[in-house]
Amino acid sequence: MTVFASLEWLDDVADARRAAGLRRTLHPRTPAPDIVDLASNDYLGLVRHPEVLAAATAALRRWGGGATGSRLVTGTTSEHELLERELAEFTGAESGLVFASGYAANLGAVTALADRDTLIVSDAGCHASLVDACRLARARVQIAPHADVDFVRTALATRTERRALVLTDSVFSADGDLAPLPQLHAACRAHDALLLVDEAHGVGVRGEGGRGLVHEAGLAGEPDVVVTATLSKSLASQGGVVLADARVRAHLIDAARTFIFDTGLAPAAVGAARGALRVLRDEPHRARAVLERAADLARITGVATPTSAVVSVVLGDPQVAFDAAQACRSRGVHVGCFRPPSVPEGTSRLRLTARANLDADELAHIDDVLTDVLSGARA
């Protein structure tokens, strides 16, 4: 094999990652896995629901395999516009705009709403998509210590920029804890700032019937609150959405580069999300069931009862966490393994995600496996 000096540094990086227990590999799953899934974000257990599959199939047959172009050219169908209206109505927002992914929704919203005369205050625990959006926005950025409202308030009060944008997850993906949304919104309202909340892990789990933490906090439809969300978790599909004041939607159509220059979301994905949303509206108990199953997983693993679908079991050392995840997988339980840079140094962990449709037999198997694996990992 020809060796190119310009790529030799990649070998050194790979060796360093391997030594630190941070090397990552892909593990393709089978269509009908014989393993209990605690690693995916299929919180409501809808990814194979008959109504979701039927809606995806109907959209596929009607519109074809792809969107065929950007949303501004040929990539918008009536299916897209129906989904936008339905999501807005469900979450209590004035309007919605669908993107090709949740990542693209965050990048597009932040970079379109911020410029060089904007201060961005971003929670230290925000998702990587919001971190990258800050880097691309060309605004001054201050990173707030996690859930530190006083820091946010001071940053907004002392800014010199004309505009300000505060970024937070509603449910933080690594720990599963909740953002102090009422307090953050009060700080934003007092200092004329927009609050952007990523509800990726909130929709389908928190709020009345799974309407999200923003709705639960009484902030749905507020003109100074912008909500982003993904369709790939509770809604069993893929894609992203921005839910906001109609003026924000109009501005994003004009200015959000990840909307203007990206191919629209595939019709089958749009149909699947609409089908999942119908199921959630008809069966709101699924949102409660997610939190009940999360409490079961917390009891099994000996951690505090969570306030979301995420159960985080911190083990510290990345290799210990990786080995524990592999041991679980070998015994029929698939769990997530979060290591730096996804989490801070020294906090590598198993990340378990609850599903509304976990049954008694699955929970008993999880109990057997996790109790045994964790006793060794924690020794």
UniProtKB/TrEMBL annotation:
It comes from Rhodococcus indonesiensis. PROSITE patterns: AA_TRANSFER_CLASS_2. Its EC number is 2.3.1.47. Belongs to the class-II pyridoxal-phosphate-dependent aminotransferase family. BioF subfamily. Keywords: Acyltransferase, Biotin biosynthesis, Pyridoxal phosphate, Transferase. One of its GO terms (molecular function) is 8-amino-7-oxononanoate synthase activity. This is 8-amino-7-oxononanoate synthase. Its cofactor is pyridoxal 5'-phosphate. Pathway: Cofactor biosynthesis; biotin biosynthesis. It is an enzyme of class 2 (transferase). The keyword Transferase applies.
